[in-house]
Amino acid sequence: MVHFKEKARYNYDDLLEIIRVLRSPEGCPWDQVQTHQSIRRGLLEEAYEAAEGIDRDDADLLREELGDVLMQVVFHADIERQRGRFTMEDVVDGVVKKVSHQDGNFHKAFLPKASTENERSTVVIETPEGIEVMARQIAGAVARRIVTYASEGEECYIDEHMGFIKFGSRVDVYLPVGSELCVKMGQKTVGNQTVLARLK
User: Fold this and answer.
1) How close are the terminal C-alpha atoms of the chain, in Å?
2) CA neighbor of 129 nearest in space, from 177, 90, 80
3) What's the pLDDT at 2?
4) pTM for the full predicted model
């Protein structure tokens, strides 16, 4: 029989461990024999129920169903882990390692000194390969507001919003030495569309 330590609240790492234990030789016989196809319908049903929570603007239902969707995702990823093809860590694009906010001035954002003197928010993301990338939101002279959605320790994905800054502000991206740049000076970039660089 499998025993889990009882907690008032379980976190993401606990979920990964629970699924791994259930699918282990000492775990649950039902979980051990499941395949992508055998639980495919469950994934679709949970996704539809989460969509119902969105349509109804029902926060309680959405919270519950998103948890069920996450469990399905972790289960499918664990099947692939046992096959040796990828893990849950490969599904995630990165983990937020650091989030910090510094008060400061409101110089025009295009000035070089704005990076270190203006009000700014810094987010450091670590990829599954252990490479760190830093993005800094810098407030400008016109729109003096920064909103950062990222929180330390949470997983992040390429198409997620890190936060937002308004007109007249800027974002600096710090890449590791040796990264292959994919843009040129003066080129217009669009979030979630333009590839800035490739990490090596």
Assistant:
1) 45
2) 90
3) 58
4) 0.55
Q: Which two tokens stand for residue 45?
A: 């049903």
At 89, phi and psi to the nearest 5? -65, -30
DSSP result, 134-147? EEEEE--SS---EE
pLDDT tens-digit readout, 124-145: 988 877 888 998 989 888 877 7
Closest by alpha carbon to 178, among 193, 199, 195?
Answer: 199
Q: What are phi and psi of 25, to 5 degrees?
A: -55, -25
Residue 5 pLDDT grade (very low, low, confident, very high; cuts 50, 70, 90): confident
142 vs 144: CA distance, rounded Å = 6
pLDDT the model gives residue 47: 94
Residue 51: pLDDT over 90: yes
Whether 169 is catalytic: yes
Catalytic residue among 100, 121, 151, 169: 169
Core vs surface per residue 81-92: b (16+ CB within 10 A) or e: beeeeeebeeeb
| Nearest residue to 147 via CA among 115, 112, 113, 171 | 171
